[in-house]
Amino acid sequence: MGFDFDTPVERRGTWSTRWERYPADVIPLWVADTDFRAPPAVLAAISRRAAHGILGYTTPPAELRDAVIERMQRLYGWQVAPDWIVFVSGVVPGLHLAARHLTRPDEHALVPTPVYHHLKRSLELARRAHTDVPLVLSEGRWVWDEAFLAAAAKPDSRLLFLCNPQNPGGTIFTRGELARLAAFAEQHDLVICSDEIHADILLDKGKPHVPIASLSREASRRTVTLVSPNKAFNFPGAGCAFAVIENAELRRAFSADHHATVHDPSVFGYEASLAAYRECGDWLEAQLDYLRGNRDLVEREIAAMPGLKMAHVEATYLAWIDASGLGVPDPYRHFLKHGVAMSPGAQFGAPGFVRLNFGTQRSRLEQALKRISSASRPSPRG
């Protein structure tokens, strides 16, 4: 079956966070959802539930729990028990639950930078002391500065945040890199909270995603893994995510706000997730092929633009672009003036960068890249 990722879909007027923020003459390539319709099987599942007509309180379906277990075993050789799975409305609430309930107010956390801003924001709102641990470019990949990490650990350190695949850098961390990180966590008795929402969006063939909790029983015992089909199958508005937590004590602490301040996923989120995991493998592979083409286009074009550079994107549909060579005070606003809205690097802890979402139709991406190229050219002297 063929799938159409090329035909533009009108999103203005649909309450889209991404498309409603900027004027109509701006191409919005910022917040991380795609411009692709969700898979047909997902839309059919949601339609069937809507046609039923009753949208009452919903228990997490046993079928979805089974689908998660089967997927973790099939993709990663990771044996997950049913009671390890805690359903939440999204990965972002999961990050905030981890910051608030897996640390005490007098404890310390370690967070990579640059990184998706809610990892750091969760610690700020929870008023937890933390140290930003820089990622560094090594052989074209954004990886942990392990020497800095070792020096940053304190006696009161309790929590280590991980984003794998890495947002915004696009790195798929290797088994060896993750094993060293897990050993560091064991050495310092840290809980790992691993955001793995992009685990299904792997663009480099032969580079598998490895959940850090799957490395060993010891790693599993100290890890909270946050997962969601929202990104890969593009239904974040329906909302469904889950945490995988073997350690019963961590699971109880993480779940303290259930039905207090954090709501369960919606019935549509459950339906969409079950359909995605059971029926949408072919759609996902077709989308990944399309995204690879978009990734390759972005990398070629950015490499040819003066003042811009970027590392190779192994995973995600996000390009982390170093615009410091342009010599402009605010790259985000500079490109916005030229009609392209990207995410400001300052949001991720790197003001000289911008993050571009290439999860869109190729014709639109080509138009945006022309505008970015125009913005990167030196201004003619008057």
Task: Give the tags.
alpha/beta; Aspartate Aminotransferase, domain 1; Aspartate Aminotransferase, domain 2; 14 helices; 382 residues; eight-stranded mixed sheet; four-stranded antiparallel sheet; 2 domains
Are there runs of 5+ residues with pLDDT below 50, and where?
none
> Gap between N and C termini, in Å?
56 Å
> Element order, helices and strands?
HEHHEHEHEEHEHEHEHEHHHEEHEEEH
Average pLDDT: 97
Question: What is the CATH class name of the largest domain?
Answer: Alpha Beta
Query: Approximately what portion of the residues adopt beta-strand conformation?
Result: 15-25%
Radius of gyration: 21 Å
Compute the number of structural domains.
2
Condensed summary:
Helix content is 38%, strand content 17%.
What does this molecule look like?
There is one protein chain. The chain is an alpha/beta fold. The chain has two domains: 17-40 and 281-376, Aspartate Aminotransferase, domain 1; 46-279, Type I PLP-dependent aspartate aminotransferase-like (Major domain) (Aspartate Aminotransferase, domain 2), CATH 3.40.640.10. It is built from 14 helices and 14 strands. It has an eight-stranded mixed sheet with strand order 2-9-8-7-6-3-4-5, with helices on both faces. A four-stranded antiparallel sheet has the order 10-11-14-13, covered by helices on one side. The protein has a two-stranded parallel ribbon with strand order 1-12. α2 packs antiparallel against α11 (267-279). The longest helix has 23 residues, at 281-303. The protein is globular, with a radius of gyration of 21 Å. The mean pLDDT is 97.
